[in-house]
Design brief:
The longest helix is centred in the middle third of the chain and has 11 residues. This protein has one domain. The chain is built from 3 helices and 13 strands; from the N terminus they run βββββαββααββββββ. It has a 7-stranded antiparallel beta sheet. Strands 2-12-4-8 form a 4-stranded antiparallel beta sheet, with helices on one face. By secondary structure, the chain is mainly β.
């Protein structure tokens, strides 16, 4: 089956039936993907990072474990993680407010805007506030003094993750467009990634 693309700086979405699987591939290495999942029957029920923390008692699922909605229903299960395993569930996605604080004037691509665009294609209004994403391949470390640090991504070309839907779901992915240079989020200028429905 041909691979689909999440274009650099932009988003993509897919609809998965319960039990459907997809594979996300870090084509060039180091590129971060912000990912969200929504209950296809009621998109206001969506994947929640804080509730996943509570449900699993860890920062993100290992293979065989699931992300959950804010009602604590499993929505996406990690089947395989063929990467360094460095991911993040602590940071919100980049948005116009963050860029404004960093001195950006005018429009700048953001994961929040990409989510809004992709949901609109599905006829879904953007939740407020923006749900916190699963930051696939973002390398964030919590230090002993509780400070959170961005580190350069450790993902390599061809690294991938396979996930399975626990319910009929809409999954949105954004190839993170952060490029201000103050934080090594993507380790390089934003690039494409690919995905495949299995």
């Amino acid at each position: 089956m041909a691979l689909d693309i999440v274009p650099a700086r932009l988003g993509a979405h897919l609809a998965l039936p319960k039990g459907g699987r997809f594979k996300v591939i870090n084509t060039h290495g180091t590129q971060v993907i912000d990912m969200w999942a929504f209950d296809a029957r009621d998109p206001m029920r969506y994947m929640s990072m804080s509730h996943t923390h509570s449900f699993l008692r860890r920062l993100y699922p290992r293979p065989g474990e699931a992300f959950v909605t804010w009602e604590r229903h499993p929505i996406l299960t990690v089947i395989e993680d063929a990467s360094s395993g460095d991911h993040d569930t602590s940071y919100p996605c980049c948005d116009e407010h963050r860029y404004r604080l960093e001195g950006v004037v005018g429009f700048h691509d953001s994961c929040a805007n990409n989510l809004k665009v992709e949901l609109a294609k599905c006829g879904i209004a953007m939740p407020v506030p923006t749900p916190q994403p699963f930051n696939l391949w973002m390398n964030v470390k919590v230090r002993d003094d509780a400070r959170i640090d961005f580190m350069k991504p450790t993902s390599k070309p061809g690294d991938y993750m396979i996930l399975e839907a626990n319910m009929d779901a809409i999954v949105v992915m954004s190839a993170c467009p952060y490029d201000l240079g103050t934080i090594p989020v993507n380790g390089a200028p934003p690039r494409d990634v690919h995905f495949e429905v299995l």
